[in-house]
Amino acid sequence: QVQLVESGGGLVQAGGSLRLSCAASGRTFSNYVMGWFRQAPGKERDCVASISSKGGFTLYSDSVKGRFTISRDNAKNTVYLQMNSLKPEDTADYYCATGDSPRSSCSSGEYRYWGQGTQVTVSS
Question: What is the 3-state secondary structure (H, E, C) of the chain?
């Protein structure tokens, strides 16, 4: 059974930084894509970033490009999202997810397993 557990969310002032972590278990972590998505109140869930199974390819949404960095440590079965220069519009619940492909993707349909989410609030 695949399990994903996010941590690292919280309250931060605009311009600050946070690092989210997602610990995975239940299958061979290094074989599969990992992604971060977010959902703000009243809005749809959107892709933030994705990383291929071995970490060689990443994708970012235009809204976070240059500010956020996705990475993974396959020895620790963990994916990270480093968030810098945070803005109030980054406020959302952040979810990590994994699918059955090794390729990076920002299509939510490619992801079969989802974590419970961690809340990020950026104050102005």
Answer: CCEEEEECCEEEECCCCEEEEEEEECCCHHHCCEEEEEECCCCCEEEEEEECCCCCCEEECCCCCCCEEEEEECCCCEEEEEECCCCHHHCEEEEEEEECCCCCCCCHHHEEEECCCEEEEEEC
- Is there a contact between 70 and 55 (Cβ–Cβ < 8 Å)? no
* 90, 120 Cβ separation under 8 angstroms: yes
Query: What does pLDDT average to over the chain?
Result: 97
The predicted pLDDT at position 80 comes to 98
Q: With pLDDT > 70 as the criterion, what percentage of the chain qualifies?
A: 100
**Closest Cα partner for 90 from 72, 68, 66?**
68
The pLDDT tens digits for 31-53 are: 999 999 999 999 999 999 999 99
Tokens of 51: 């990383």
- Return the bridge partners of 53, or none: none
Sequence-distant (6+) residues with CB within 8 A of 65 are none
